[in-house]
Amino acid sequence: MARAAVPGRLGARLRWLEARLTGRHDESDTARTLVFDVPGWPGHLPGQHVDVRLTAEDGYSTERSYSIASAPDGERVELTVERIDDGEVSPYLADVMEAGDRVELRGPVGGWFVWRPDEQKEPVLLVAGGSGLVPLMAMIRTRRALGNRVPFRLVYSLRDPASQLFVPDLRTQDPGLDKTLLYSRSAPDGWPRPPGRVTANDLSAGGWPPDFEPACYVCGSTGFVETAAGLLVALGHDPRRIRTERFGPGG
Question: Where is the FAD-binding FR-type domain (predicted)?
């Protein structure tokens, strides 16, 4: 992902920390959530990400960036990784790593695409495409953990039911969190909306009216983000209140 390198604590120097895998579970056929214990972790804001570095025995190393999926919780950090079949890093993280294995993490990174619960009191609109839900789930989980009363609305576009992430979380009843699921390729039997790409009507029905001045967070592939952000502007949302995050298979 292409993101601005701003640490969670402004002025803090980013450094590599050793992270030990303590647990993992499936989110979908291709996505896994990895739970790490990271001694010395400084804490993070929902929406931030980390750099992950793998180093082979011969000294070769490579890095990728992954959004943090968890609410701040001491030295515990969760990453949800979508496996890219021809990727260099994601297949190892998603399919090979076992409890006790170690990697290096650097972060938290990002100061723009974050939700600050002590400062932001306006309604929040979250618009996710596919695995773009990951940093938005950190915002949802943080709101839940704090008992925050700021109203949230989530519009989540995914290919089909099998690709849905965080199924138990999204089934949880959260007062003040409204959820709209959209399917682009195939929908469950009897689903009221036929499969298709996100539209202005979807964002109008599932989101907030522009005059509520919500904080809008849009995350997904470049094409999805450009489309969704453009639709929000066309609906009358202030572009200055729309924050976007894009991802791609390069990390």
Answer: 14-115
Are residue 20 and residue 99 in the same domain, yes or no? Answer: yes
Domain with residue 152: its CATH number is 3.40.50.80
Q: In this structure, is residue 234 part of a structural domain?
A: yes
Domain count, the chain: 2
End-to-end CA distance of the chain: 5
pLDDT tens string, the chain, 251 residues long: the values are 333 333 444 446 789 999 999 999 999 989 999 999 999 999 999 999 999 999 988 889 999 999 999 999 999 999 999 998 888 999 999 999 999 999 999 999 999 999 999 998 999 999 999 999 999 999 999 999 999 999 999 999 999 999 999 999 999 989 999 999 999 999 999 999 999 999 999 999 999 999 999 999 999 999 999 999 999 999 999 999 999 999 865 43
Whole-number Å distance between alpha carbons of 80 and 93: 10
Say whether pTM exceeds 0.85: yes
- Distance (Å, rounded) from C-alpha 34 to C-alpha 97? 9
The helix (run of H) or strand (run of E) holding residue 26 is strand 16-26
Count of CB atoms situated within 10 Å of the CB of 197: 14
Q: Are 75 and 183 contained in the same domain?
A: no
Distance (Å, rounded) from C-alpha 214 to C-alpha 151?
10
